[in-house]
Each structure stands twice: as structure tokens, then as C-alpha cells.
Specification:
Low-confidence stretches: none
Shape: elongated
Strand content: 15-25%
Strand order of the largest sheet: 3-4-5
Number of strands: 5
Helix content: 40-55%
Mean pLDDT: 80
Order of helices and strands: HHEEHHEEE
Length: 183
């Protein structure tokens, strides 16, 4: 019985065994490495985009809470109107002013797509208008008797979608409430 055994100390190679320059072509070790690398890359990207999306959403939620404060403060100022020595309660005017104030506070987180430079005169108004389309304000306790504060509830539709993030399945509704004394 004849076996083809190669001497490990020998530098010559037989025609059946590959040379050292081409040995990587015939080596079968590590063939799963590329697939494993791609799978681990996808998992790593998923975690990175998840963390990025979570951070952005946390910042947006903080801005929504600030917008609720802005809406409550503006409503408190615009709720009571004085004319002819009489005080009248105007919920519609207070709601309109509160919605505009909340939109102005949310202009920093609204999409800037299509606005080349927000620092140019008039462009910030476009951002506030865009934010106003995504925000709703509900005032409570405004014109009730013996009430000295107003509560504003702000709802903002966050539409920024991050690819590969499990949180970005669609627009999300963020909500906050704030209270302010009526002047």
C-alpha cells in the first residue's frame, strides 16, 4: 500500500500539494469568517442606530416638555383680555397663541429639509410653520371659575426616521403637560 506522504522538512512540493504562495486558495479554514463578520456588522449597526435614535428621541421629548411650558405660559398671558375695564376669557385666542409658542419652541427639532440656512432672515418662520403642522395644544382649566392656573397639553408628531433602528417603524407621538399661573 503506497501513501503519498510529504516530508515536513522538505521545501520541495509535489504536484498534488499546493505551493505556499497558493495555499490560501486551497485552505478551507475560516470560510465562515466573512459571513460571521457581516452578521456581527449588522448587529453592531443595529445597536448603534438604536442608540442614536434613542438619544434623538430623548432630546425631542425634552423639547416637547419645554414646548408644553411655553404653551402654558403663553396661554396664561393671553387667556384673560381686558377691555373697557372688564375681564373676558378668550380660550380660542389663548389656544392659537399657545400653539404658535409651542411650535416656536419645537423649531429646533423639526426637520430642516428644504431650508438651506435657518439663520437667513425669514427662514425661522418657515421652521415654526412646519412645526405648527406637527403640534397640537389642548388647554384645560382656563376659563373655569376660581381657577388660578392653566394646564397645556402638547402633542408633537416626531417624523424623523433612523434607518435600521427598531424604534423607527413610523412617526411617533410625543406628549407633555405643563401648568402656569394665570396673570
Amino acid at each position: 500500500m503506497h501513501h503519498n506522504i510529504r516530508d515536513l522538512n522538505s521545501t520541495t512540493s509535489s504536484p498534488e500539494t499546493p505551493t505556499s504562495e497558493l495555499s490560501f486558495c486551497h485552505d478551507e479554514r475560516g470560510e465562515v469568517g466573512a459571513g460571521t463578520y457581516l452578521i456581527s456588522l449588522m448587529v453592531a449597526l443595529w445597536f448603534m442606530f438604536f442608540a442614536l435614535d434613542l438619544g434623538i428621541r430623548k432630546g425631542v421629548q425634552l423639547n416637547v416638555e419645554y414646548a408644553a411650558y411655553c404653551a402654558a405660559r403663553t396661554a396664561a398671558v393671553h387667556l384673560n383680555t381686558y377691555s373697557g375695564g372688564k375681564v373676558s376669557c378668550d380660550t380660542a385666542a389663548a389656544t392659537t397663541a399657545a400653539k404658535r409658542a409651542a411650535a416656536a419652541c419645537l423649531a429646533g427639532v423639526v426637520s430642516k429639509n428644504g431650508i438651506p440656512n435657518p439663520l437667513v432672515r425669514g427662514e425661522i418662520t418657515r421652521l415654526v410653520d412646519r412645526a405648527e403642522k406637527q403640534v397640537s395644544v389642548l388647554l384645560s382649566n382656563g376659563c373655569a371659575a376660581n381657577v388660578d392656573s392653566v394646564t397645556a397639553e402638547v402633542r408633537y408628531t416626531h417624523q424623523l426616521l433612523i434607518p435600521l433602528s427598531p424604534l423607527s417603524s413610523g412617526p411617533s407621538l410625543m406628549m407633555a403637560r405643563a401648568q402656569h399661573l394665570i396673570y
